[in-house]
Amino acid sequence: MYLEHFGLKEFPFGITPDTEFFYSSQASQLALQKLQLAMQNGEGFVKVVGEVGTGKTMLCRKLMNSLDRQYQVAYIPNPYLKPKELLQEIATEFGARLSPYVEVQNLHQEIQACLLDIYRSGKKAVLCLDEAQAMPIESMEALRLLTNFETEKNKLLQVVIFGQPELDTKLNSPSIRQLKQRITYALQLQPLQVQELDEYVSHRLKVAGYAHQRLFTAKAFWLLKVKTGRIPRLVNILAHKAMLAAFQQHSTKVNWFHVWTAAAETESIQKIRLPLQPILAGLAAMGLGALMWFWTQNEPTPTPVAAEPPVVLAQATDSPTAESAPTAQEPVTTVAETSTPAAPAQRPAEPPSDNQLAQQSFQNALPMLRNGQTLEAQALLKQALQQNPLHFEARQALVRTLLDAKQINAAQAVLQEGIAKAPDKSEFWISLVHLQIQKNDIDAAMETLRKGLRFNQNKAPYLALNAAVLQSKGLHAEANDNYQAALKISPDNPQWLVGWGVSLQALNKPAEAKSVYQRALDMGVSPAMKERIQTQLAQIQLP
C-alpha cells in the first residue's frame, strides 16, 4: 500500500503497543521513572490511571521490558475475572502447575510458595494488571490479600495496576478502602502536550524508516491536534488514514484535506468535542476571506468530494468549524447576497460504524490476496483490525499472509493480540500453539496451552491438541485425561482415538488401548492411519 510510496519499512501508526515506537512524552517518561523507582524500592501497590488511548498498555509493556533479570514479571492483560479465576491466573503466571479443581485456600498456598521460591532465588516478583477498571470489587480484595505475603523486611509481591478513570471510582468503594490505602504511588497519564504532537508524529515516522522532510503540513498538524485532542491512539488512527488518503491522491505530503477526510470516516474521532471558540473567534475577527486564505494558502489544492455548496450566515454568532471550512474551489453563498430562501438542509446519512468500516476493509483485501498483492492486502487487514480489533476473519487472514511471508514472529504477535482481545476464541490459542511447535518451542506451546485451558475447557480441538503436546513430552497420564475429555465432547474422531490409545499403551493399559484402536478402525480410516493402528495393535500383548 503506502509503504513504498512514502519510503517506509513498516507502518508508523499502528495501534498495537509496540515498544519500539515508545515516545517519551513528559507524562509517560515521568510515570516510567516513578514506576522503575517504585520497583527498586519494593513498593507494594502502584496505580497508573489514564483516559482511553493515552498509552497505558504501551507504558506497561515498556516497564516490563525495562526490568532486568532480577525481576520475575507476571502480566494479566484482561483481569475481568472472579476471585478464584484471578488467583488461578496469577499462580499460573508465576509458574504453578494447578489441578483444575484446586480450592481457593490451596491457591493462596501455591502462590505463596511460588513467591518464596522467587525471593530465595534473589529476584523480585512483580504483577502487572492492565484494564484494572474491569476487575470486580471482590477480585480487587483478593488481590489485596496477596500483598500480605511478606518476610520480616520485604514484600514478596509488588503490584502495578493500569486502568481508566473508572478505576478510581471503584477504589473509592468503602469495601476496599484498605486497598486504596496501600497504593504508594498514584500516577496519571495525560494527552500529549501541544508541542509534543509534532515530535510524536515525527518520532514514529522516523522509527518506521521515513527519511525525508516534514510529511504532514502545518495545517494538517493543526487539524490533527484539534480532531484527536492529542490522545496518542486517536492520533495514530487519524494519521494512518490521512496517509492512506494522501497515497490514494498520489500526494507525497499529507495536507489538511487528507486529515479532514480521515476524520469524517472515523466514528471515534467525530465524538471529540474541544473548546475551539477562542481560536474561531480570532479567525472570525479577521473576516471570512482570511479564514479561506488560512486553509488554502500554500496548500496543494485537493479535489473535494462533490457536495452541496455550503451556506454561510453573514455576521453569524456561531463561528464555522474547521471541518466545514471552504476551499478555493467551493462556491460560497451567503444569506445576505440572495433573496431566495435557503432550502431546508437534508439530514446527512449516518456515517458507517467502525464494524462496517472493518468489514469493508476486509472485503477490499480479499481480491488483493487472490491477485498476490500481499503488502496491500496486509495493510487493509491491519486497517480492519484497527477499526474493529475483534474482526475474527481479518485477524486469521492477516496471520496467514504473515506465515506465507515467513514472518513467524509478526504472526505470533497478531495472534497474541487476538488472544488478549478475545480469549474465548480457541482458534487463536490453537494457531499460536502450532506456531510455537513450528519453531520447535514445545515448552512455550505447553505454557500457552496451560494458560488458555480455563477459556477452552469445553472445546474438543483444544483439549485434543493439549493432549498431543503433553504426549510428546511423555506426560501420558495428563494426555489420557485430555483425550478422554475431548472425545466425550466429540466422540467420532479416529485420530484422537489413536492418540488416546498410544497414551493408554504407555500407561500399561493394553486391553483399553486395543478397544480404543478397534473403535477407530470401525469408523473407517485412511490407509495410512489403518497401517499405523495395525502397527500399534501388533505391539499389544494381552495376558
Question: What features would you highlight for this structure?
Answer:
alpha/beta, 543 residues, Helicase, Ruva Protein, domain 3, 5-stranded parallel β-sheet, two-stranded parallel ribbon, 7 strands, Rossmann fold, Serine Threonine Protein Phosphatase 5, Tetratricopeptide repeat
Structure explained in plain terms:
This protein is α/β, with parallel strands linked by helices. The chain folds into 4 domains: 26-189, Rossmann fold (3-Layer(aba) Sandwich), CATH 3.40.50.300; 195-280, Helicase, Ruva Protein, domain 3 (Orthogonal Bundle), CATH 1.10.8; 353-457, Tetratricopeptide repeat domain (Serine Threonine Protein Phosphatase 5, Tetratricopeptide repeat, Alpha Horseshoe), CATH 1.25.40.10; 474-543, Tetratricopeptide repeat domain (Serine Threonine Protein Phosphatase 5, Tetratricopeptide repeat, Alpha Horseshoe), CATH 1.25.40.10. The protein is 56% helix and 7% strand. It has 26 helices and 7 strands. It has helices at residues 3-6, 26-41, 56-66, 83-93, 104-120, 137-146, 166-171, 177-181, 194-207, 218-228, 232-248, 256-264, 267-270, 277-286, 288-296, 354-370, 374-387, 392-404, 408-421, 426-438, 442-452, 460-472, 476-489, 494-506, 510-523, 527-538, and strands at 45-50, 71-76, 124-129, 157-163, 183-189, 311-312, 333-334. The strands form 2 sheets. It has a 5-stranded parallel β-sheet, sandwiched between helices. A two-stranded parallel ribbon has the order 6-7. α10 (218-228) crosses α11 (232-248). The chain is flat, with a radius of gyration of 29 Å.
